[in-house]
Specification:
Helix content: 40-55%
Number of strands: 4
Oligomer: single chain
Number of helices: 6
Radius of gyration: 16 Å
Strand content: 5-15%
Strand order of the largest sheet: 1-2
Distance between the termini: 31 Å
Order of helices and strands: HEEHHHEEHH
Length: 156
């Protein structure tokens, strides 16, 4: 999948990745809050992904991911960009990819969600469809693998 070009992915496929990603990400956040992986700041709940990453997933996350570690490796080496304001203009900024740890991995997956949810990647048409597809798919693979290994419990 890493050889994707813009013409190789359809909007419908990207929409499907986005839906699956949002649904699973939401299930993670529900589970993390239920299991007390959160902090409160001025009565606002902040999900504590770092605590979950450290206490549940652990520093041997690549071994735990097994064959899915290639997806974690892709995300860590090609993290989603961050939107920043430079001279009053919103621009994309490269993100440091020097950190290779479980907290960085979940931080990058969280940024995939934030970029998508807050409108950074979609304004009626997909921004950089091939890269968006790769980040969504690899994030899904990581989250699905950990779910399938029982590191979150999804109630049916």
């Amino acid at each position: 999948m890493e050889e994707l070009k813009e013409n190789d992915i359809t909007d419908a496929e990207l929409d499907s990745f986005a839906f699956k990603f949002f649904k699973l990400f939401a299930q993670y956040e529900y589970f993390l809050k239920k299991e007390n992986f959160f902090q409160t700041i001025r009565n606002k709940i902040i999900v504590d992904w770092d605590s979950y990453a450290n206490k549940v997933v652990g520093k041997n996350f690549m071994d735990l991911l097994g064959e899915s570690s290639a997806s974690a490796d892709y995300i860590l080496k090609n993290p989603p960009k961050a939107q920043v304001v430079v001279n009053g203009v919103i621009v994309w900024k490269d993100v440091n990819n020097n950190e290779i740890n479980v907290q960085a991995l979940f931080g990058h997956i969280g940024r995939v969600r934030n970029n998508l949810f807050h409108g950074g990647k979609f304004n009626g048409t997909w921004f950089d469809p091939a890269r968006s597809a790769l980040l969504l798919r690899h994030s899904l693979i990581v989250l699905e693998c950990l779910r399938d290994k029982g590191l979150i419990r999804i109630e049916k």
